[in-house]
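Q: Joint fold for the lines below.
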Amino acid sequence: MTELEAGRAERLAPASGSAAFQRYRDVLIALIAFAVLACLPLLSGSKALLDFVIRCSAYGLFATSLNLLVGYTGLTSFGHGMFFGLGAYSFGLIMQRLGVPIPVAFVATLAITAVIAAAIGAICVRLKEIYFAFVTLAFQMLIHSMILSWASFTGGDQGLRGGIPRPVFLGIDLANHVHLYVASCALLILGLLAMRQIAQSPFGYTLRMIRDNAARASFLGIDVWRAKLTVFVLAALFASMGGMVMALFVSGAYPEFAYWTISGEGIFINMLGGVSTFLGPMVGTVLLLLLNDTVTRFTEYHGIVLGVVILFFALGLRKGLLDFVAEWFAHRRDAVEGR
Amino acid sequence: MLEIRNLAKSFGGVKATNDVTLDFPDGSLTAVIGPNGAGKSTFFNLITGALKPDSGQVLLDGVDLAGRSPPEIVRHGVGRAFQVASIFKSLTVQETMLAAVSADQRSSAVLHKRFPLPETRDRAEHVMELLGLAGKRNRTAATLSHGDQKLLDIALALVLEPKVLLLDEPTAGMGPEERWRMIDKVRELWETQKITVVFIEHDMDIVFKIAPKIVVLCYGRILATGTPDEIRNNSAVIDAYLGTEHAGAAA
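A: Joint structure:
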């Protein structure tokens, strides 16, 4: 499964003190990326472009968090989308029914997600490979049918209608399109930075060890079950963040957000962008949304086109786009070193 | 001191380990030999927690480890290397060592700092030097030669600074010359690190040459224990395992 090994392309710099340097570099890249994104509304008046970036933020947070499970830990979850849906619904319901400030609803949603993810994870992470995939999928279906059948609370198949109230907080008005755009970008960048930190922390290397050889990891004194549960909950939190961005964007929440196809799209994105580098899923997100938007404009059979594209990546390249680029650079570096 | 008391394990009706009682004094070097299916690997699996014994005790400095989980037993100071090198194929040699030290220092769940932690460097460096892997530190484990992968496996056990090191066939799958290099390394580690080493080995020449003490297992039971000379001349061992060739050589 060489195509599913996150962090393979990133080598550890030998000099001591490089760890701190790496962190500053990541923060710097994040700041620059945020500055560029934040300047976008000044350069272009296109509402569609800003909408595109907001959707990229929601899906990017979701897909990157899925890569923490799939690429870094070797846990292929087919139910990760449940936390995307859970985030959207919890946030929407809290805002509609309790009328609390947005940051309070944000934190409360994360807390709810953590509790539910811990309960589901405690059952799932004991299972191996295909069983893990199936049981996570089953939980996704369970949550989806709960949303559909508990119509008095969730609005059933109509979703949360009537809009999500977006009161102004700290001078930020999320009903304003540009404010929402900048806030989404900020959440994306902060989320990515936090996930990058997780991936490059000692815990991140524990995850890689579990992916490569869980039995050996336990003979080094690592509690494999606990580490898997921890990353399951952490990944759920970021997926939930993505769901909240989506809920804010559409000012509602719909059962499709919790349907298994969201999980499928997450896997799809990871295959497109590649899982061996941290930013692979982000590249995949942009690719998928671009494809979606352009293809649906030309044909109603967009499913076929997307299917062909994924076949090309899976069978042709046998890896995601960024995997391909990273490998090309690695080959060139080796050639330069004369090996 | 590692004391095994009446250790037993059955699989169905087969007694893979049958009432085994053994002492491994601190700083001893012991070879475990026996025909295929004698229960050598099972014996290691019982000590390290990979299998739960049906009955009996595994006492390390008086603490009973029998039936505990592998992580717990490792933390008490029993390290092991595997018959088939058990490594992390996508990590480099250096990353492997640093991550293992992190695990031993209980910092493997740290989220807010960057890997590697500065306090893990010295120990990782020391063991890489010790096993001659320092020059290959940036090689991905999967690309190492078979012999180096076995060394890396041993390094993983050793970097945890165990009191007892269990090596399951350190020379498995190696050519004759590589075998001797490996076993010299094992002996050197035993001499310099002052730890208790127990190893399983099939090559009798190697066993008789380097092991001061030998345990012979057969059908899950201890057939004999003793010095190389005692084992060579033990009639039960000759009948069950050695045949006449080695006995003749000793005479």
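Q: Anything notable?
A: Residues 28-34+47-258 of chain A form one domain. Chain A touches chain B through 37 residues (CB under 8 Å).
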